[in-house]
Amino acid sequence: MNRPIPLRKRLLVRLLITSVLIAICSVAATAWLAVETTTRAIQEEQGQVLAEDMDILRQLSGYAATHRDWTGVEKTLRALSDKTGRRIALTTPDRTPVADSTRRGTTLPPRAAATVDPLHTDTFTEPGAQLTGVDPRAVGPYRLTPTERERVTLLAQKRRQCFANNGVETHITRLPSGRSVLTDEDGTIDGGQVPTPCADGLLNTPTPTEEKALAELTTYAGKCLDRTDVKLTAPLAVTVAFKDRSMLARYLVQKAPAGRDNTPEQVEKAEECVERARRQQLEPYVAPAAELFLGHGDSAVPHFDMSTANKAKVTGVAGLVLALTVAVTALVATRLVRPLRALTHAAQQPPEQHVRVPVTTQDETGILAVAFNDLTERRERMEAQRKAMVADIAHELRTPLTNIRGWLEVTRDGVVDPEPELLASLHEEALVLQRVIDDLQDLAAADAGTLALHREPVRADELLEQVVAAHSVAAEAAGVGLRTAVDGTPWLDADPLRMRQALGNLVSNAIRHTPADGTVTLSAGRHGDEVRFQVADTGSGIAAGDLPSVFDRFWRAEKSRSRRTGGSGLGLSIVRQLVTAHGGTVTVTSEVGAGSVFTLHIPDAR
User: Fold this and answer.
1) Residue ranges of the domains in the chain?
2) Rounded mean pLDDT of 424-445?
């Protein structure tokens, strides 16, 4: 019991370890959250900057696709710079300045962010160049004249109406060259399958401008096509790629004059020839390639990093948090452990000392100290009651045994003859002794939980009549009247023998404490879910200070009464034990000089 507590099991050590772990987890979680949040913010900012870069490149590529040179681009550059808040500069491939949103002479970044070339557009920055790498806004000689645009638009409207008459909904879309085409909700040109009445071939027929440009393109591609061993029997034709809103120069690969089918390799080489010829044809109509420089556009992707000074700050703050945590935990744990140690010391003292502990706090420890003191007080009181009960039992048994022994000795010595009166007195003393032993046996059985009950349905009025019949002789001898009063016919589930014993003890006590010409009234009735029995007398009553002790063992209201006339002092204790065994309770009210009322609350049989 007095062996020392292992260090790892001490409350103070456990609290310190717990607080340190909590502090470490808190610091780690806070650091992780800060890094995660900062990294995410940097990534979002980086994504926003990248989107701005792509938009700048797209607009400048569009400018180059629609202008023969960079003259006048300064206005566009300044507008983009004002919108994005970034520096934008254009130079030739040899770093000759073309245009700059800042003042001339400002040092350029070490590397260009991108190259602006509408004939070789980055397919990731310009969605319109996904197929060919040529900016779809670079149309050059394919741009329709106003008259041609108007005529093509009228043809598109006519075909759209024809589609509508045949149940196909379409929309008119104008390409950068000015040509109008039909699209449906799925983005398919001419509504996919063209209804027969609408297939007039007029809308897709090249205009004079387009025919001239296609003839020029055929001439440019001729020499390269000769090397592919592919001979064209007709000029190149214009097709439209709706996905990028651009016009593509394509041709149907036909059989060679010798009758051989063109191989896939020949077809691929022929397409490369046409693409090179197309760029050669568009080159005079677009601005020359230029290098694009953006402020901070060439910097590396920012990553979260921590300098030596910041690391020192974080380490210092973490150490301070740990130190404060340990200090506060040690202080709190010490204040918490102190009363626990006092409780442990008090509990280790010999039981007969009944040591109390001081209550210094109002928290859980203080509540525990109060409970410990209450337990000590109850133990002390029970110990005193035990000692008193042992003394009372010895006294109760000594008196009849002394009388029996004394009379038997004088009878043995011949001093007194064994007359009937003497034998009757000895028999009465034996009955007193037997009654005390029986009462103690009943209390012991009730305390051990072995008090046997033989329950059965019992009528309350019959039970009262039996009790009155058993005590009528004693009541008549004492000049006390016995009365009964029953409300209805209440039933209860009880042991009739034990209930008669409990009520009999109350009636016998009432008769002893009621003067002649007094009355003892037994009543019964149902109240809610219980049956109440009352034994009321008009006797001397019990003082208010003695009421809490009336059910204690060997307690008597009048200490001077003899055991023979005052009973053993166990009757009311037995009453309480019997009623408790039936699941009920017993209460008492009394007034000195007016009498007492004992009430038994027994659960209803229903």
Assistant:
1) 1-116+289-348, 140-285, 350-448, 453-603
2) 71
DSSP string, 493-536: EE-HHHHHHHHHHHHHHHHHHS-TT-EEEEEEEEETTEEEEEEE
Distance CA 392, CA 443 (A): 15
- Strand, coil or helix: 75: helix
Angle at CA 31, nearest 5°, toward 27 and 33? 115
Q: How far apart are CA 25 and CA 19, in angstroms?
A: 10
Q: Hey, what are 487's tokens?
A: 């409300």
Sort 529 into a burial class: Cβ within 10 Å, 0-12 / 13-18 / 19+: exposed
**Phi, psi values for residue 159, rounded to 5°:** -70, -35
Q: In the chain, count H helices and then E strands.
A: 12, 15
What's the Rg (C-alpha) of the chain? 58
CA distance readout (Å), 242 to 59, 128, 474, 571? 21, 10, 123, 111
> Is there a contact between 252 and 237 (Cβ–Cβ < 8 Å)?
yes
Mean pLDDT of 397-401: 71
Which of left, alpha, beta for 192 (phi over 0: left; psi -120 to 50: alpha)?
left
Check: CB of residue 180 under 8 Å from CB of residue 153. Answer: yes
Angstrom distance (rounded) from CA 47 to CA 504: 97
- The CATH code belonging to domain 453-603 is 3.30.565.10
Q: Give the dihedral of Cα atoms 357, 362, 365, 369; nearest 10 deg.
A: 30
| Least-confidence region, from 234-243, 420-429, 504-513 | 234-243
Rounded to the nearest integer, the mean pLDDT of the chain is 77
pLDDT grade for 520, boundaries at 50, 70 and 90: very high
For the chain, give percent helix, strand, coil, nearest 5. 55, 15, 35
Inter-CA distances, 210 with 81, 137, 205, 571, Å: 38, 16, 9, 128
More confident residue, 459 or 445: 459
H helices present in 348-448, as ranges: 364-412, 420-448
Q: What are phi and psi of 390, to 5 degrees?
A: -60, -45
pTM confidence score: 0.43
User: Max CA-CA distance within the chain?
Assistant: 169
Phi/psi zone of residue 575: left (φ > 0), alpha (ψ -120 to 50 degrees), beta? alpha
Residue 382 pLDDT > 80 = no
CA–CA distance, 203 with 236 (Å, rounded to integer)? 17
Other CB atoms within 10 A of residue 375 CB: 11
Q: Using CA atoms, how far apart are residues 387 and 385, in angstroms rounded to an integer?
A: 5
CB 507 within 8 A of CB 513: no
pLDDT tens profile 119-164:
887 644 555 444 567 888 888 898 899 999 999 899 888 888 888 8
Token digits of residue 93: 């491939």
**Rounded to an integer, what distance in angstroms lies between the CA atom of residue 520 and that of residue 481?**
6
Please give the single-letter amino acid code of residue 219: T
Q: What is the pLDDT of residue 278?
A: 85
Look up the CATH number of domain 350-448. 1.10.287.130
Is the CB of residue 551 less than 8 Å from the CB of residue 579? no
Instruction: Phi first, then psi: give them for residue 214, nearest 5 degrees.
Output: -70, -35
